[in-house]
């Protein structure tokens, strides 16, 4: 079944805890937490203290997407804050292999993410080490952008690689996901749909999630 991971970036930050509970009650499988440092991307969101605070309110899987430089410096803090899965970017500076190793040493699942302009082959050196690939279908930094369809072949490329190499590999898509673009991604083999503005704008988030679960 498709895993649905609503992006909390589109939540009302003045009541983030309540929003998390709303997402969980709507039937979401995971909660996607977009961490931005103002350096890797031109925006700043939240970090471990906020994640730790909302962790107490829900049992849902915390799917952290670190859009930060030199992520190895912060893995301990994000793991201790209660993240279940941590994804780092292949374009980030610093020791990315070391960051992945550290995530796994902490007993968490590790993901690698790729920006729209990065060639898919940049993932190759990381694939043997990760549990998940997060294919960005917008330029990271902001919610509410339009889906970049050129990124879709990366989904099937990763699924093919996993098959050829006998590896379990979840593929997640992030950016501009709505009813139509979700279908395109699922057809290409995506396992996880990350969606922010589309889900949070819905009157009935539960219905949209149920529809994706039914696909
Ligand atoms: C963008 C983030 C996304 C974002 C998606 O940098 O990684 O998770 O919240 O938002 P939508 O679904 O509105 O494109
Ligand atoms: Zn994200």
Strand fraction:
15-25%
Shape: globular
Number of helices: 8
Average residue-wise pLDDT: 98
Cα-to-Cα separation, first versus last residue: 8 Å
Which small molecules are bound? D-xylitol-5-phosphate, zinc ion
Low-confidence stretches: none
Number of strands: 8
Rg over CA atoms, rounded to whole Å, is 16 Å
Structure classification: alpha/beta
Give the quaternary arrangement of the chains.
single chain
Order of helices and strands: EHEHEHEHEEHEHEHH
Helix content: 25-40%
Description:
The chain is of the alpha/beta class. Helices cover 34% and strands 20% of the residues. An 8-stranded parallel sheet has the order 1-8-7-6-5-4-3-2. Helix 3 links the parallel strand 3 and strand 4. The longest helix has 13 residues. It starts with a strand and ends with a helix. The relative contact order is 0.17. The mean pLDDT is 98. D-xylitol-5-phosphate binds next to strand 2, strand 8 and helix 7. The site of D-xylitol-5-phosphate has 21 residues, from strand 2, strand 8 and helix 7.
């Amino acid at each position: 079944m498709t895993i649905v991971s609503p992006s909390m970036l589109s939540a009302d930050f003045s009541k983030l805890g309540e929003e998390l509970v709303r997402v969980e009650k709507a039937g979401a499988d995971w909660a996607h937490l977009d961490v931005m440092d103002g350096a890797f991307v031109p925006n700043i969101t939240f970090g471990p203290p906020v994640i730790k605070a909302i962790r107490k309110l829900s049992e849902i899987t915390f799917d952290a997407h670190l859009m930060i430089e030199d992520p190895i410096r912060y893995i301990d803090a994000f793991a201790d804050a209660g993240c279940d899965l941590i994804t780092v970017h292949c374009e980030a500076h610093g020791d990315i292999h070391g960051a992945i190793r550290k995530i796994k040493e902490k007993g968490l699942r590790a993901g690698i993410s790729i920006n729209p302009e990065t060639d898919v082959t940049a993932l190759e050196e990381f694939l043997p080490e990760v549990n998940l690939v997060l294919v960005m279908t917008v330029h990271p930094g902001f919610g509410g952008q339009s889906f970049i369809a050129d990124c879709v072949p990366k989904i099937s490329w990763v699924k093919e690689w996993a098959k050829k190499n006998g590896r379990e590999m979840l593929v997640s898509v992030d950016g501009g996901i709505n009813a139509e673009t979700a279908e395109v991604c699922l057809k290409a083999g995506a396992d996880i749909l990350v969606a922010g503005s589309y889900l949070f704008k819905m009157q009935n988030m539960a219905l949209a999630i149920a529809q994706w679960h039914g696909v």
